[in-house]
């Protein structure tokens, strides 16, 4: 998808003390393939009481893990077709996504064509590379290419977003219960 800078933080479920966390506290960023734009949202971790992410500088090869959020643009005149295609994704594509490390993957589409994707993965770059190596992904990207505003494989044009707030992480860092009605 992207070939910009990678960044990483704690593994899903890790905290600075090594104990479990409610959710990952940061998401890495690569904006439009611009390596200079690749930065980890250290503010989200700092606000949550976690460490600023190691490896958020250009040239770092630390794996991005945890929750990843991205945007792209679908052509407004093709929204119906795009929705229909995603209502019946090929079974072999679903298996390839699962087998290459994509978990809890969701796509959201706004009426003006803004597409937002959210997924969890142990290693985003490895998950992308795994998909790129599959024959089914090449076929899927060829089928989907005409739906997107930008030319090229759609999965190579995603803009990865920084996480700037995570409620459960901040509640936990403040020593507050994460669930309603729970005691400290």
Automatic annotation (TrEMBL):
It comes from the Bacteria. Residues 1-27 are annotated as: Disordered. Residues 1-20 have a biased composition (Gly residues). InterPro entries: Dimeric_a/b-barrel, Rham/fucose_mutarotase. Gene3D superfamilies: 3.30.70.100. It holds the Pfam family rhaM. PANTHER family: L-RHAMNOSE MUTAROTASE (PTHR34389). This is L-rhamnose mutarotase.
